[in-house]
Amino acid sequence: MRWQVKSRNDSDDAKSDIEREDVVPAVVENVEALGEKNPEDVDRWLNLKSAIHRKLLDRINLSMLDKMSRDQIMEESGGLIFELLAEENAALNTRERSMLVEQVLDELLGLGPLEPLLEDDTTTDILVNGYKDVFVERFGLLEKVPVRFQDEKHLMRIIQRIVSAVGRRVDESSPFVDARLADGSRVNAIVAPLAIDGSLLSIRKFSKKPYSLDRLVEIGSIPEQVAEVLKGVVQARRNVLISGGTGSGKTTLLNALSSYIDNRERIVTIEDSAELQLQQEHVARLETRPPNMEGRGEVTQRHLVKNALRMRPDRIIVGEVRAGEAFDMLQAMNTGHDGSMTTVHANTARDALSRLEQMIGMSGIDIPAIAARNQIASAINVVVQIGRFSDGRRRLKSLSEISGMEGQTITMQEIFRFHQTGRADDGTVLGEFQATGIRPKFLNHALEHGIEMSPELFRPGLKIG
Description:
14 helices
């Protein structure tokens, strides 16, 4: 084979990487089912896979891998892996041999045991609690899966492969890190000594095909009428704040809304870990940088927001505001960058405004509370509150408009809300979207941009969807 260039020393036969009697039974049909039924056989399988992987690395020319597709590598490696299995006296049937080839290639080219979970479109979160316990979220509900790593070193090797790909590091001196996968999926890892029972790895998967508002309407997250209003809000260049809890779908909604930005506009995105999947042609993506080993070189979101103002943006999109960058973001919204968007962690729309006020205080600028609230009231036009309900589904909870200041209080009026009425026998949350009857001020701005919305959408008590 063209990539098999290393020779094997005959003395290697003297001692196998695993004991000869530790072979995987040929009756095993599925390694996941084996994990549930017989842990000892799973250990033998993992030992065998590790041995084949190490010997494969001794036989191949790694520099050739980048020039070959996975199918080519799989085709050429099949015979070699079969030879290595014969050397190990491993009694495997055709199905198991094919499975082993796939898993060895996952170790060689991907993220090992995580690859099948990453390929599963129904999986939205992958949570690794030490090398033995792996959980996933499917359809909003957590479940344990019979996938595991060989040992802690194996898990650490996969974590290092992820973080090194984006120029970051994780070790005892820097024991936690935020990173991303090539497809934009969000990754967080925390290792010893902070992780007591083994390294912890969390992956928030993003769909390979970005969600659109139409798709969110189809799955029942947003009613069609409200989606039309949101579309008009974006096209009318209103500043939008998306609020919600962890895992509620803030970034997904931000991606969906951004698809309605005009292709002729210049968009600058700012994120801790680049996750947004904007479809426009003119997008400038910026990402923060953590400090180096000497504690220097850190680039925060606040630095990037300030720099973005010099990049001639039409709109600025900040993945999430967490601290002092909120002040600079509000300043940008107040100085001609209409139509900018960001997200914030908060349980209600009112809490979101309170959090923004607190973040302004974190900027280090001594500004009176009333001035901070005036900044918020004049910068933010629409607050979209979303949440994940007990049945695992993510829904829009309310759409509100900031109408100004009344004394020292920011005035906000709710336009649409989701009213929960109960739960079905299978746990599904029951409810309906309602219009509050308030006609929003942004309708006038929409008309200026040639966007018409039917007044019937805002009729008091209107049940939507």
